[in-house]
Amino acid sequence: MTVVKQDLREVMIESFHRAVAHGVNLVTVVSDSTSTAKIAPFQSANPERVVNVGIAEQSLVGIAAGLSLGGHVAVTANAAPFLIARSNEQIKNDICYSNTNVKLVGLNAGVAYGALGATHHAIDDISVLRGFGNIQIFAPTDAIEAAQIFDYAYAHEGPVYIRLDSAAFPHLHSPDYVFEVGKPDLLIEGSDILIVALGSVAHEAVDAAKAAAETGLSVGVVSLSSIRPLDKEAYVDILKRYKQVLSVEEHSVHGALGSLTAEVIAEEQLGLKLTRLGFPEGQFSKTGPRDAIRAYYKIDAKGITETLKTLG
Length: 312
Hints:
Radius of gyration: 19 Å
Largest sheet: 7 strands, mixed
Distance between the termini: 32 Å
Shape: globular
Order of helices and strands: EHEHHEHEHHEHEHEEEEHEEHEHEHH
């Protein structure tokens, strides 16, 4: 069977076309990131709906806020490390505190930039934004889910952050999948260990769970593609079915998926053992090809499988 892979940036561009066709007054703002965003097809068809501010991320966020106040649905499309780090204050004040209708898309999230190193890696974006009010936070796993998250974001009035992995991935969901805001997405049922995965790492988690099944270990996989809002009751219901939990994320273990899961387990007194895989707190990420970085931190399928053996 042929495995179809789809670049999530192309899904984003398709969502731009779809939104405009349905009457959404969408304008996208880029910071010399037209190639990164693969925005050429949309720009050719709608040149008046693309604003390129140059390498000026703080201006990008401020302009996006202004466009939203003028009645537009403003969408930023640039690299996550620069969006979050360089324009942190503007995101906090102009977007979140002011509650403007801006959709922030962080491209090349995690260590997608690989050999360019820690300056170009976004392993703290979720933790930063979880500290801000008003903003909703999403991390789609595949094209089917990403398309629906984009459509939801344009319809939602208020700030949204979409952590987008700029690569091509096979579909984890069937064509009839329906994204539900806040709902944990249980990809595989299990009974022994639950893997909680963030974004594209869910693909690694699914492969690891299938490998574990061959050894008799029953491993479930849940994706928290909707980080905020999150249906806590539904998440607790899933967690209660397992003996222990393994969180996996291409992010620091501080402040994102592992931290969120630890908070839920502690607050609800679930008494579950939690193991976290990601980038150690207080450290910068290693430099190298992305696959090698994932392998080093054991957030690839092989590393997750090895960790499952120690837990099982």
